[in-house]
Amino acid sequence: MVKTYNTQPVLTALQSAKQVLILLPQNPSVDSVAAALALYLALTKAKMSTTIGCPTEMTVGFNRLFGVDKIKQRIGNQNLVISFDYPEDSLEKVAYDKDPANQKFHLTIEPKAGFEALDASKVQYSYTGSSADVIFVIGASALEDLGMLYQQEKKLLDDKQKTLVNLSKSAKNSQFGTVNLYDPTVSGESEIILAVFQALNLPIEQDIATNLLAGIESSTGNLSTANSADTYEAVATLLRQGAKKGHLNAQPAGGARVQSPFGAFQTPTPQPFMPVTPVQPEPISMGGQADEGPSPDWLKPKVFKSGVLQ
Asked: Higher confidence at residue 252 or residue 152?
């Protein structure tokens, strides 16, 4: 039986949303990233403007998940941020003035006496500030788990007028969302996302299904710790949608990956069989002359008489 969650507020919000934001916590699990990417791919397929972000960089362990290159460490484009290095207590003041006639804005950074002026070549520019209407936070226990993304987008995330969907299986979840899709009994967030997809009628194509199956495989040790029939039902559903088993562990051609009690290892690539030409033995020479071989009757039985073989 498919699990059901309180998805009606999510459906209502998505119907009028112009921008959707999906956020992951610092150092997320493979399961959380797989679930978030599956949601990103599905919403993008449904023609919704969607951004996905994570405060930490994606490592090689995530590189086979579909859509992983879309995850950004900075999100939003509403606010210009100017950053530069400066020694402590080296600034006298920072001021600005406007020039309406020329439509110019001037920012003045004045160093204290004895300090060098700011090096313009070292000034960095970036953007923050998202205008998202619906925000999904996947795999976090609290908003603070979002690290620098929470600091950058605090105004947005604390806005109670926004639909903030907290999707998590963490036992320590603080129920911080306006909608909490929280279930500590599932194998992971990928299992919750699948139920949400089915409730919202979101498309589940092969890449999406493969991501979700990879998430479940990761959170259950390839199903070795899966104790719920719901998990196996989710796996069956994903396989019917074309999900590829063992996608994260798949190796390129050139050898099979073998799992043993001592860990995984790579078997060598089989080499084609090459026939071996038998080597003919050289005649053994005795006393400088070639050996002519044994006499024709050497296999016949011999009789020992008085120290002589006959």
From this structure: 152
